[in-house]
Design brief:
- The structure is a homodimer.
- Chain A contains 16 helices and two strands.
- Chain A is an all-alpha fold.
- Chain A has a single domain, classed as Farnesyl Diphosphate Synthase.
- In chain A, strands 1-2 form a two-stranded antiparallel sheet.
- In chain A, a hairpin with a 2-residue loop joins strand 1 and strand 2.
- In chain A, helix 1 (about 15-35) packs across helix 3 (about 60-70), helix 4 (about 80-100) runs antiparallel to helix 6 and helix 15 runs antiparallel to helix 16.
- The interface of A and B includes residues 126, 131, 137 and 157 of A.
Chain lengths: ~325, ~325
């Protein structure tokens, strides 16, 4: 008899690996649809769209559609086209966002608007958005069309709401949650819910997957908000403090402001309106965030939504799909920062 | 017996009056849908959308849907919601166009982007576009969804194509016709075609109405192009020569350039790229357009498409609806200029 020696290894960090393994094959099919359907005789369209679509995107939303379909043991291929549609909506939103925010960098690369100008980014975004609906129409489910057209309207509504709350330090936590629920979480929810539609499950399954996606989306966004005050360029593809320098109101700032004194509130007001937001102020911001536990509590909020996402899966059978979707939540929360 | 004296009156100028009378009641219903569905808890959305939607728009596309439905003697109300959807797509396009062209004036009023900024115009455009699809989904016809999602993709494609042809005097007449077929005529065609869908007519009727709309749309655009070189601010809500000053390539310029000498071609090249486009040059442009008969021939082309639009109606029964749709074509061609 040979003794097997088990080496004690630390539990690995949660990662996207399980979801990527689960959805790898499907994602190849989705990528084919994406590449095929972003073509156009107008050469600028695939050129510009390809820059963003090929440029290091994680395909997180399509992977969620595929992962949820796997959870329901769906055996067809309808979800490939629909996952591509979701990615097109997401890409259209990013193109327009970068114009709205006048961003020059995304995922460490020059943005499309910087390379091709705002007009091209706006119009190619419109094209991809229309293509997304063409893909849904080809699939032919009015239920999917309803879910995704409604999500699109909610996203745009959330973007306008964020625009009107811009640089306003008085934004409340509730209002901020409403904004990110609309801007970010609505498409996560829709991406998951449509898997239940193609698998022909009941309204309860649809609602459970939508809840999973919605809560995961909020958790992702809140952790992004926290990371922006503690990361370095290597982990995020952007520098810590970008949100601060852009005067972006996020939950850490909202909590620090709410818990602040008259003096520190004035500091945040000046910083968020761009009147005093240099390196010295960024350092002071970090100090205030620590003193008020604002980043730590943003993470606590994120864990709350993460827990709700995981609980939303309780009614589905265990196995590799559920494990992968659960680990995706853990990854969202525990990303190195 | 009393003798009746008939006074000889000149035939009245063609106008939109017949189409407006025919569709007046329906248009009130469409306007209710429009006002109702542009609402949002985010106040900026109805405020900005209302500025453009209430601001003197002719509702030409919804009227065409209603007029074509009347031609088919359709008695239902589905077309009200769909006509509103078409108007939302059109409005979204205008909002984005004004950002893309950096326009400050539309129909003699300040543009939304001038009043509320580019970001708000982009995002409210996205919202209206999503709402358009929500309205179609509520109607529930996959055929209508296919027609309008395809038209939307074609519009965006045409806009990008126009962007890449910007200020390029070498643009050919064929290419220009392709661009305006996509940018302008596709939505006219779709607005007419969907009337045949709700009235449950066959593919031939659908195609005939689409042809009517497409040819009418091209005629409208070509006459607009001509008017820009001969109108005054009162008739157009914009000054003559706006296209010239903006370096917009339109058919009069394409014809004058194609028929020009090396010297006059150089003149157009300098003018369209904005290097020499003052009042003196505008006057010279007018002279060259007359010498080459470029405006007159643009009008001849417009009449050709107008004739095709009228002929497309040949298979439908005569009566007030067909007369109104015919007069709309005549109005498009003969608008005072």
């Amino acid at each position: 008899m040979t003794a097997t020696i088990h080496t004690l290894r630390p539990r690995p960090e949660p990662s996207m690996a399980a979801l990527m393994a689960l959805t790898g094959q499907g994602l190849t099919a989705v990528n084919h649809v994406i590449i095929d359907r972003m073509q156009s005789p107008v050469a600028l369209i695939p050129e510009l769209a390809g820059h963003l679509i090929a440029g290091g995107g994680k395909r997180l939303r399509p992977m969620l559609t595929l992962g949820c379909a796997a959870l329901l043991d769906y055996q067809g291929t309808r979800h490939h086209r629909l996952a591509a549609s979701v990615e097109f909506i997401h890409t259209a939103t990013l193109l327009h966002d970068d114009v709205v925010d006048a961003s020059g960098l995304r995922r460490g690369q020059a943005t499309a608007n910087r390379l091709w100008g705002n007009p091209a980014s706006i119009l190619v975004g419109d094209f991809l958005f229309s293509r997304a609906f063409e893909l849904m129409v080809e699939d032919g489910s009015l239920k999917v069309l309803k879910i995704l057209s409604s999500a699109s309207a909610i996203i745009a509504e959330g973007e306008v709401a964020q625009l009107t709350a811009q640089r306003d330090v008085e934004t409340s936590e509730d209002r901020y949650l409403e904004i990110i629920s609309a801007k970010t979480a609505a498409l996560f929810a829709a991406a998951c819910q449509i898997a239940a539609v193609v698998a022909e499950r009941d309204a309860q399954a649809e609602e459970a997957l939508a809840a999973y996606g919605r809560n995961l989306g909020i958790a992702f966004q809140l952790v992004d908000d926290a990371i922006d005050y503690v990361s370095d360029a290597k982990t995020m593809g952007k520098d810590a403090g970008d949100d601060f320098r852009d005067g972006k109101i996020t939950l850490p700032v909202i909590l620090a402001y709410a818990r602040g004194t008259a003096e520190t509130r004035e500091f945040w007001r000046l910083a968020m309106t761009g009147r005093a937001n240099g390196d010295t102020e960024l350092e002071r911001a970090g100090q205030l965030l620590r003193e008020t536990a604002a980043v730590a509590d943003t993470m606590a909020r994120a864990r709350h939504y993460g827990a709700r996402a995981i609980d939303a899966l309780a009614g589905f059978p265990g196995g590799p799909a559920r494990a992968a979707l659960t680990e995706t939540v853990e990854f969202a929360i525990h990303r190195a920062y």
